[in-house]
Every structure is written in C-alpha cells, then in structure tokens.
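Journal club prep — side note

Before the paper discussion, L.F. wants everyone to see what a predicted structure for a comparable chain looks like in token form. Sequence:
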Amino acid sequence: MLRQADGFDAGGAVLANIERLKHGAAAVVTGQQVALFGGPLLTLLKAATAIRKAQDATRVSGREHVPIFWLASEDHDLAEVDQVALLEKTAVETLRLGLKADVPAPVGGLRVDGGSEDGRVRLEAALERAEELLAFAPICQTLRECYPWDAKLAGAFGRLLTKVFAEFGLVVIDAASRAAHALGATVLRAAIERAEELEAALLERSRELEAAGYHAQVLVAKGHSLLFLIDDVSGARLPLRRVGEGWKAGARSYETAELLAILEAAPERLSPNALLRPVMQDAILPTAAYVGGPAEIAYFAQSAVVYEKILGRVTPVLPRLSATLVEPAVAAVLAAHELEFLKVVEAKTAEELGIRMGARAMPIEGKRKIAAAGNAMDAELTALTEYMSSLSADLGRAAGVSASKMRYQMNRLRRMAARFEVQKQASLSKQALAVMLSLLPEGHLQERLLGGVWFLARYEGLAKLLVEHAGQECPGHRVIYL
C-alpha cells in the first residue's frame, strides 16, 4: 500500500489512513475501471460516498474507518476505458487516445501513449483539446501531471483520484499487482480447488433469481469458472473453463496442479472475474462495507453465495450517491422557465424541451385563447360523447373516436403555437439544447456519460461538496446545484 501510495503521489492524509489500517481500522471500499482522465462523473460519486460512509461509521462506531478505492485495472475492455466525454457548445465530444492491444490484455498496464511516437502525439492532442473544453481551469494542470507520456492507465487514473480527494485521505489500490494477488491467494486457490462446488452454488442461485422474477448479471453455465488466466506468452487475459477433470484457457489445456503451481510462482497471472473480485478484495482488506452502483449491487445477488462458501460471510453493500449536477447558468434557465429536473427527463430531447419552453414563453393573451378554446372544446366533446352513449353504445364509441381525433388536433395546434414561439425566439432552442446537453446528454443520466473533470473544472470545491451530499440515508437520485 505504501509503495503504491508513493507512486500515486499521495500526501499526509493518505499515509495517515494507511497507518490507521495497520493498527486495526476497518475499510469502506469502492472501485471503478481506470477510464481516461478519470472517466465519468460516477467515479467521483463513488469515491465521495466511500469517504462519507467511512466518516459516518467512524463517528457512530468509535472504530476508525478508512475509505479505499480499488482500481479495476485487470479488466480488458479497452474501448470502454479509452475515452472521456466532455461538452462543447452544441454536442458531446468524446476524447480518445486511440490505444490498441493485439490481445484482450488487462488495461491498467497499458501506457497512455501506447508506447509509440504517434501515441504521444495523440496524447498531447487529447490533453490540448481537454484544456480547451475545460477553459484552462486548474484541473488541466493536474491532468498533465497525472498523464505524462510514459504513465500507465492505472497509475495515471490513481494519481488523479488521489489528488482530487487528497484532503480526505482516499487510499487508492491497484489490484493487478503481484503483491495484491499473493495476499488474495487463498481466494484464488479456492476458486481452483472448489470450482465444482462454487459452480453448483451459482447455478442454484441463478435458478432462485429467475424464479423470483430477476435475471442473473453473469451467465453461469456448466464448466463455468470464476477465473481468467493471463497467458505467459501473449499477455492475453483468457477465461478459464473446466473441461472434464482439467482446465482450458484459449487453445491450451491445464491440469489443476499446473494452475496451483502458477498461483504459487506467479499469482498475478490468475485474475478474478466480476463475481470473485469482491470476494478477493474483502479477503485482503478489513472491509466493513462496499459502495457500489446499481449494477454492482445486483452482482452481489450472485456473488453472495461465493462469499459464503469462501469467506463464510457476506460484505454489506451500500448504494453510491446518484446525482445530477446543475451549473449556475443551467440553473438560471430552469428557473426562468419554471422547469424542474424531472420535466427535463420527461422531455427526453432538446426539441421537445424547446417546445415546452416555447409554450411557457407565449404571450399571456395567446395562452388564454388556446386554453379557453381547448377547455370549451373538451367540455362540449365530453357532453356530446355522454349523450351519444346514452342513445347507443355504438354511437358512443364512434363519438369517443371522433372526440379523440379532435383533441389530438387541438394538441397539435398548441404544439404549433409553441414551435412558432421557439422559431420567433431563437434563444429558446439554444437554451433547450444547453440544458439537455448538461443534464441529460445523449439521453443518458449525466453521471454515466460526462467526465468528472468537466465539473472539477467548474467548481473548485466539488470534492468537498460531493462528500457532504453523500451522507444521504435514503437511496434515490439527487439534484445538486453548484
């Protein structure tokens, strides 16, 4: 831990927390993939929640609790982590380094320049473009410090996260190291030696979930394994499958004794899958609770049986803070048009939001005339339909269909009037686009798409603000005004 902390340029607060762990402190743990420039906002939300829950647990229990961020650096989905989404004036812009791997290898060990001169050019271009989009805010200098050309993805990500939450002593751990795997060797050994027993438990849990109306996050089939094997020649991260009494990874077969020998000599070559990873993590750390997003919490419905079989206990899981951050300029537009966040979500598109804003912006006389006509028509149609129904059920049904068509045309007229207002006031469409890009970019919740650095650039005290809001006890989405 101390060696990695030094590599992440950790300060005194981190070193103090590591010392607390050495003397019996518990841990509140979270983690995330090592995405470019810190990845989406949810990374910051996870870290802030772990920090706040550790603070609260220390205060309530009297036992020290330390926040830990576990880097998921062994994942091999390079396309997913080689990107960060930021905003330009009219669209979401995705920055990429264009990293490539010949085989599906763990991403954390890849250099940010790809080990080539062309890669250095792409890295510099990404940093320069990020600086432009982030308006050369102080966080840009931090990005340059964390992403020199010879840095690796895990190291750069870890340094950035350490710096952002420096005052809170967030301890960042790279799980791909030999030391980490050696500490978790008992779990890796159990996954090899007790593979059949674990498979049976997971298959039974999958049946239980399906019977209860849920679905399993990880498909478990006969021969399923909880492990990947790093090929010693190509470096590929290959799923291990059980075949008869032996094992297979790629085209190569292994005996159980061979895998145990690899575990003894090079434990970093055995990599846990999504169901085993938290078990290995909690065998290494004195974990009191894990902070996860909705999908991660769903994983625990399956991994709980692995926990019980290997550790004899299941770690409590806490939901991370889920939030949309509203910048002052966006808040001003929402206030001017009396819009709430849920109304933006309901609109779904900038065009629809613009129409709603146009409807509110119409002159009061126009609003009254349209409302009066609509209300009068609705009242007359309701009375007419009731009268027709009293004469004949068929007449009533026909009147109902005709009334629906007329109401549709009335609504169409309302939308036409609102659209005309949008065309007349060009600023409305621009405002609607700006709001939608910021709060619901490309139809996604902001936290899942926009890079956390976007908000770090705009709000100097963001880390502290997120930690404050992460104290919520009731799960649910929160709207935070910056």
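L.F.'s comment for the group: The two ends are 35 Å apart (CA to CA). Keep this in mind when we get to the figures.
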